[in-house]
Structure formats: structure tokens, C-alpha cells
Amino acid sequence: MLDDEIRRRIEEFRRQVRTEARRRVAERRGADEIARRGVAPTADRVDFLFAGRAQLAELRRTVQPLARKLATRLAARRRRASRGTIDLRRTLRGSLSTGGVPMRPVLRRRRPVRPELVLLCDVSGSVAGFSDFTMLLVQALHDQFSKVRVFAFVNRIDEVTGLVVRGAADPEGLGARIMAQAALTGWHDSSDYGVSLGEFAERYADAVGPRASVFVLGDARTNRSDPNLPALRRVAERARRVYWLNPEPHTQWGTGDSAALAYAEVVEMHECRNARQLGELVARLLPV
């Protein structure tokens, strides 16, 4: 009986310590922050860099619903854009019949042309989950573009457009097929953005033209190798737009071997840590 009473009191003491520790943490951080961290995030808020296998599988199941939602938003943007801008000369000419008052503005109609999309995806290490999800999303949205080309890299770059297109039937195996069939590494397995960007600018310059929007996906960690900023500038000069989506928090850009801040001086870089942020960025940044 005495042993049972001792164990009971020890357990009660531990419970009180845990309760007091939570109370003090809540005072320091705020109750809302504790509640946010104490509840498991929904699939669209799971951090790409820390998602486990089960969470990545759940994320893949959200691709089609997200793609449908984005397609609707892109179609609405395209309709608004097709209305065009006011043609001032024709509007003023038409106002002569109403005493110089422009009662009926004449619009300069835009000719609807679907944009071209180019993806450059770092598929090394923990960044691979982020790139895989984005490639699957683009796969689901491919009919929104006149042309889509996808390139993957670790320390060499290779075109994987065919693998992505054919991967619709088996989205879970997309990353493994790319790693097995594409030439992505040289004499080591570490990521090298400088070499990969240089190869892309030299070998695949034809993929980028004035109608192409280029998205670079990766954490910009170069393993302290040359980031090759001139290669990225050459790509930016040829493209309509270049955006860099970085799955790391903005506070970590430029730390350690990160060249994010240097790349961000050349192209527009955005933090993209989860599916919710990715959906918002795609809806906002994709041209119509």
C-alpha cells in the first residue's frame, strides 16, 4: 500500500509540473499560438519540408480538388483580361454623336493566348516532396497552358516533361521514376544550383521565350558552390517572367549555404511552405 501511495503522489506531482509548464509557456507565447500548435494541421497547411510519408500521400489526394479550384480562378481571370482596355481614339470618335460625351466606351479587345509554363525543380533531399507536389499540380492544370515543359535537377538538369505527363496514372511513383530515369547527378549526389542553372541556360535555351513564365522550385541551398547568377540572369532576360518558389521560411534565406537572397536580387522569390501558399501563389502569379 505504501508503494502504491508513493507512486500515486509521484504521478500527481508530475501532472502538476506538466500543467504548470503549459501555463507558463502559454503566458509567454500567448494562448492562441499554443492552440494553433497543439492542433494537427490540415493537409493544405502541412510544411512541405517536414511532411512524412503519410502526410505526403494525403497531400497528393488534395491535388485534383486544388487543381479544379485554381482552374476556375484562372478562367475567371482570363475572362476579365479578355475584356481589354479602353481604346481612347475610337471612344472619342464615337462620342461625336453624343455631343462629345463618351457614353459608350470602346474597348481594345485582347486576343486570348494561353501562356507557356516552364518548371525547374530541385528534386534532392527534403525539397523533393515540394517539387513532386507542384509537378502533380501542374500536371492537373496542363490544359490551362499552350505548352508546358518540366525540368528536374540535383547537380545536373534533365527534361522530365514526358515522365510528368505519363505519370498521371501513378502520382505516388512520380518522384521515384524521375530519379531512376533522368540524368540528375554527376560524380556526387549533393544539389548544385550553379551547375544546373548553367546547363539549363546552355542546353535548353529554346524552352524559354517571350510568352514563357518560368518557375524555379527549391531552397536555393548551394552546398557553398558557385550560385551562377549570370545563368539565372540569362534565363530571366529571355522569359516573360521568372518566379522562384522557396519552401524554406523567409527568416532562413541567406543563412548557412543558402544563396536565396542573392537569387532574389535577380528574380522574384516567394516563400512557399505548404499547399495553401502554393495555391495562392499559382492563382496570383500565373499569367492569363
From TrEMBL:
Source organism superkingdom: Bacteria
Alphabetical list of Pfam families matching this protein: VWA_CoxE
Record's protein name: VWA domain-containing protein
Species annotation: Streptomyces avermitilis
